[in-house]
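Form 7-S
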Amino acid sequence: MQYNETSPGSLKKGLKARHMTMIALGGSIGTGLFLASGGAVAQAGPGGALLAYAAVGIMVYFLMTSLGEMATYMPESGSFNTYASRFIDPAFGFAMGWNFWFNWAVTIAAELSAATVLIKYWFPDSHSGWWSLLFLALIFALNALSVKGYGESEYWFAMIKIVTVIVFLIVGVLMIFGILGGEATGFSNFTAGDAPFPGGFFAILGVFMAAGFSFQGTELIGVAAGESENPRQNVPRAVRQIFWRILFFYILAIIVIGALIPYTNPDLLRSDIKDISVSPFTLVFEKAGLAVAASVMNAVILTSVLSAGNSGTYAATRVLFVLAKEGKAPRFLGRLNRRGIPMNALLITASLGLLAFLGSLFGDGVVYNWLLNASGMCGFITWVGIAVSHYRFRRAFTAQGRSLNELPFKARWFPFGPLFAFVLCIIVIIGQGSGAFSGGQIDWAGLTAVYLGVPLFLLLWLGYKLIRRTRVIPLQEVDLDTGTKTGQ
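Output:
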């Protein structure tokens, strides 16, 4: 299916190069860096956290180059499910689309729940429901105005996060060398006690899995490619920049945290959404003498969760729209208003944000953790689908006698890249529930929450396959032409 700017019912191409870069970058810098990084250092030590985040960064690089190659050749707002349907099997694409929609639609509710927890730092006695309604209305409005409205809001959300990280890195480096905050700490904490790898292999494996969640969101660039003004230039530029910037921010941040805060510091273990005062960023800023650090970081992390909710709403809405256009969702979801917004798909997606109102009934932290577990596995399934789709795409390209020179952007290290990403994602998926077996007892509730996404995906895939009697598409029959002129 081909979408272009002049065809009826087409999405508007309003995303500029700077929007594309910030969408990818902003989607991956959030609570995973501001909060989870502290727990990673505490669990695996500074060396273990550094190794885990670097490995995941390399995996994400291969996934983004794979996605970049496909998205520049045929820019589609359906992205993952469209590529999976075309290069693997329509049933696999059906399952990928609904898996991705569920992932991000539920993430909206999770982030709204997180926002209510964060806002209570200033207004502890306020009602969660009203805050959820306010933030949901804000996110809905940003997405309902225009695609440029979404892109512009995400640009500034991301800018706030990036400036915060840069200031943190500058302050941290000055403290390490004694220019700020008194005595130079150097890198002695990297070898203090049992550091740099106090927990051994399994501690690093646990952090590796947590790091994967931190990087989720980079794949949003594949969805945004369908509404980019010039995807064949903007997508490769964003893909090339995103790897180095993410690796730069995450790796340097881990080095600064590991150097300035001993891994034995009990506050690192309490770095979660309910206690901003012990974010590793807050600890470093307070150590530098910045008394307002906790309040400032609370505001930054609030913008981070709203950014994630904003991006989740955009991505889930676009994928639901394309599922409808492909006959894999009710047809009314494939309609656009005069501003080029799939309003029906947006309304259905935003309605899942109402789950955040459960926070006022069962407690904010409980709902946030439940929703996060329910959607977390779906992100890794999406990454597996990207790797397999790219592998099949390139093999079909070769089997049909096409020249690689036809590709506007070529992913390096093929086939190692997608195979490496596939294997690591499978390891993460299998090992995700290892924490449920600790202490000699099995946490069945936790195990069910973690792995719920896997049987749901298989049910969608095999159910569609049986009903529609689809088959894996032979390489010679893979459609490599439809939609390729969209970005020209």
